Structures are given as structure tokens and as C-alpha cells.
From TrEMBL:
This is OBG-type G domain-containing protein. The keyword GTP-binding applies. Residues 5-294 form the OBG-type G domain. PROSITE patterns: G_OBG. It comes from the Eukaryota. Keywords: GTP-binding, Nucleotide-binding. GO terms for cellular component: cytoplasm. GO terms for molecular function: ATP hydrolysis activity; GTP binding.
Length: 442
């Protein structure tokens, strides 16, 4: 059992999107380790890092994830990243690979927008100096709004007539129009609630401005976005970063209808400083045994750092390589705390409101759940499975998600750590009901 959502990675040419994808995906991982039956050519696997319960229960040696991996009590859960093509201004009018770009977005649950914070590439990705990266954030959102609004507006007159004729509710009418964007009815309802005080609920009275206002709130919820401000260690990045943070200061939190207060679809809380090239280089040096480095950490270890009596596992670096890794240490790791790329993945999962759940066969030794264990995968071990689900999912809904026939249809109860019995309508949230054993009849 695996999480099925996809996070789309977008960015103009030369913003660093390819480097970012290389930095967060595991190119050396075997296909058999992926919990997904099919990985499309433009998709990759990144890892969402969370504390693993194996550390709390002193079972790190017995922790054997079926998918992803666990290292020193940190669980790395695989999530899919989609490499979206053709991001240039005019995409909503088919410019570049605009049609493919916008169609790809339908698959995405959230967006990671890789932005060149150095200002050394223009809106087409051409080399320049002094470009304002805020423009990239603005026009990305503008393209998506124009795409959705254009599609809805072309059919709006007929939609309103059918709404009046059939007496359908406003939310059902709007959901029917927006279903092609892979949206849930709950998102449409929240967007409608957020604008109801300004535009009213009678959609037959809406003008073009009211419709656009609703679509903007709908997009805030449908495509939550994390901005990866990339190339932070390049000249001019500092002043651009400061200007961006000033522009989006105070955004985030919730407005009416629990819709975040955003600007250009962006929240201050979801802007992350990154250096994808630094991460790629550190990973390369680690794979070649020049340094010991854990992705997402704030430092690395060299042969010299090992000190006297070291066993010599790390190799000696030449002066050129040494200068480069020390520059990364000084300009990125010590200054910002990390290269930022792992944090971006964590934020992208976080904006979706997903939490990790560990289905187990026993709440004593935390073995694999009977629904997912098989003789072909080797069996054994603790905390074999980890599934990401929306916060607020009920215990019974999760049973259905795990295995509808074996668990849902034969459902006989559920319990968590300490043998605490769970009701069917108990909810799964961060820090509560995150380890579950199901009992089935027959």
C-alpha cells in the first residue's frame, strides 16, 4: 500500500528545476523499491523524512521498511514528483509547451515552483542580469488563473441556465465545472464559503469579477504551492530574497472559510531557500567517499574531520575539490542550516495536510499488517509499512484505503499502542492514532 498523490515540480528554463529534481530524487534506487506499479518517464521518487516510531519503541534494528528506508530513526517515505514541461509566459495560450504544462497540472496535488533567486535568467530562461524573480512567481499564478478562468467562462452562460433550470446547489454546479481539474467537492465548498460574503451564493447573479474572485480562492486550495528560491549562494541573491520576503510577509494563516491568506498563490511560510547544485555536489562527493553527508543535514564530515585514529573510510580531496566543499559549507550550510531541498519536499507534503500512519499486525512487536505482508517480500521486521493519508481520515476510512475486501468488508475492530481500542469514527491526525492494528472476522 502506498500514497498515491503526485507533487508537480515547475520552473522556467535555467531556474534550476533539473538540478532540484536530481537533488531530491534517488537516481540509484532500484525500481523494485518503489511502491508504485508504474513510474512515468517524467516522474521520479523523492523522500519525505519523518521521525520513525521505531526509535520511540527501541526497534531501530528491527525496522525494515517495505518501501523507502529508515536511517537512525528517520523514516524516508517515497513520494512521487512530476517534472512539468514548458513553463514560459503565455502557456495558457499554448505558447511553448503550454498545453502539456497545464494538462500535467491536473495530476498534481501540490506544486513546487523552482525560482532563480539570483536574477541571472529572464522569463524565457535566457542569461541576463538584474531580473526580478518576483515576476516568475506572479506570472506562474497568472497563467494558471487564465487557463482555468478561460475554460470556465466559455461555458458559464450555459452553466448558469442549467443551474437555474434544475435547481442544483451552487457548490454542486461549480464542482461539476471544475471536476476536470481533479478537485474534491470539499475544496469547492471552502472556496465558495471564502468569497460568499463579497459575491453572494446566487451564482446566477455573479459578474466576471465575482467569478474570477472565486476561481482565485479555488486555486489557492486546489494547487497549494511551495516556492523553492534556488541559487541562494550566487551574487545578487541576497537582495532578491529580501525583496521577496518583504512582498510576502504576513501571508499565511487562514482567512474566511479557513482559506489561507495568500498573495500570488504564495504564503510566506512556504518559501524555502535552496541550493540544488550544492546538494547535488555534496551527494556526489559522498557517493565517491570524499565526505560523509546525510541529505538535509547542516554539515558533512571530511577525512580531516575524522581526526586521529580514523579508519580511513573517507578519501583525501585535492585542493580544488576541497575549496568547493568548504565554500558550500560556509555559504550554504553554515549560513542557511542546509541546502533546503529536503525541506521543500517536507513543506510540499505538509501543505496537503497529510500525516503518516503505520498499519501493523501487532501493537506489541509492531510487525507488518496482515493486509500487506506476503511470502514474496521476505516478511518479518517492525513497521514495514507507512502510508500518508489526509489528516482527519477516520479509522474506518483508512481500513477501506488499505484493503477494501480483506479489512473493510471483514472489519471487526481496531486498536493502537497500549491496546487502546479505536472507534470507527476516530480520526487520524498528527501524533494521534498513527499506529493501527486492524482485526477482521472469519
Amino acid at each position: 500500500m502506498a500514497s498515491s498523490f503526485v507533487i508537480a515540480c515547475v520552473g522556467k528554463p535555467s531556474a534550476g528545476k533539473s538540478s532540484f529534481l536530481n537533488a531530491v530524487t534517488d537516481a540509484s534506487a532500484k525500481v523494485g523499491n518503489f511502491p508504485f506499479t508504474t513510474i512515468e518517464p517524467n516522474q521520479g521518487i523523492a523522500y519525505y523524512a519523518i521521525p520513525c516510531p521505531c526509535a520511540t519503541h527501541n526497534l531501530t534494528a528491527q525496522c525494515k521498511p517495505r518501501h523507502g528506508f529508515c536511517r537512525n530513526g528517520q523514516r524516508h517515505v517515497p513520494v512521487r514528483l512530476l517534472d512539468v514541461a514548458g513553463l514560459v509566459p503565455g502557456a495558457s495560450e499554448g505558447r511553448g509547451l503550454g498545453n502539456q504544462f497545464l494538462d500535467d497540472l491536473r495530476q498534481a496535488a501540490a506544486l513546487i515552483h523552482v525560482v532563480d533567486a539570483s536574477g541571472t535568467t529572464d522569463d524565457q530562461g535566457r542569461e541576463t542580469r538584474g531580473y526580478d524573480p518576483v515576476e516568475d512567481i506572479r506570472w506562474l499564478r497568472s497563467e494558471i488563473e487564465q487557463w482555468v478562468a478561460g475554460n470556465v467562462e466559455r461555458k458559464w452562460g450555459g452553466t448558469v441556465r442549467r443551474h437555474v433550470a434544475t435547481g442544483a446547489s451552487a457548490v454542486d454546479t461549480l464542482h461539476a465545472q471544475l471536476a476536470g481539474y481533479g478537485t474534491r467537492r470539499e475544496i469547492v465548498q471552502r472556496a465558495l464559503d471564502a468569497v460568499a460574503g463579497r459575491v453572494g451564493l446566487a451564482i446566477e447573479r455573479w459578474d466576471a469579477e465575482a467569478l474570477r474572485m472565486f476561481i482565485a480562492r479555488f486555486l489557492d486550495l486546489r494547487f497549494p504551492t511551495v516556492v523553492a528560491l534556488n541559487k541562494i549562494d550566487m551574487p545578487d541573491a541576497d537582495k532578491n530574497i529580501a525583496a521577496i520576503m518583504r512582498r510576502y510577509h504576513g501571508t499565511g494563516g487562514s482567512g474566511s472559510g479557513a482559506v489561507p491568506v495568500l498573495r500570488d498563490g504564495v504564503s510566506e511560510d512556504n518559501i524555502v531557500l535552496t541550493s540544488a547544485l550544492a546538494e547535488c555536489f555534496l551527494r556526489k562527493m559522498a557517493s565517491q567517499k570524499y565526505i560523509a553527508y546525510t541529505p538535509g543535514s547542516d554539515d558533512f564530515q571530511t577525512r580531516e574531520d575524522e581526526g586521529e585514529g580514523a579508519d580511513g573510510e573517507l578519501r583525501e580531496m585535492d585542493e580544488k575539490v576541497r575549496r568547493r566543499v568548504e565554500n558550500i559549507r560556509d555559504l550554504v550550510l553554515f549560513r542557511y542550516g542546509s541546502t533546503g531541498v529536503q525541506e521543500v519536499v517536507g513543506r510540499a507534503v505538509g501543505v496537503l495536510g497529510y500525516v503518516a500512519v503505520f498499519p501493523v499486525k501487532s501493537v506489541v512487536n509492531f510487525g507488518a499488517s496482515s493486509s500487506s505482508s506476503s511470502s514474496s517480500d521476505g516478511g518479518g521486521g517492525a513497521f514495514r509499512d507507512c502510508v500518508l493519508v489526509r489528516s482527519g481520515t477516520t479509522v474506518r476510512e483508512f481500513a477501506r484505503k488499505l484493503h477494501s475486501q480483506a479489512i473493510d468488508e471483514g472489519y471487526a475492530g481496531a486498536e493502537t499502542v497500549g491496546g487502546v481500542q479505536l472507534a470507527e469514527d476516530d480520526v487520524i491526525v498528527a501524533g494521534k492514532n498513527n499506529i493501527i492494528k486492524y482485526s477482521v472476522s472469519g
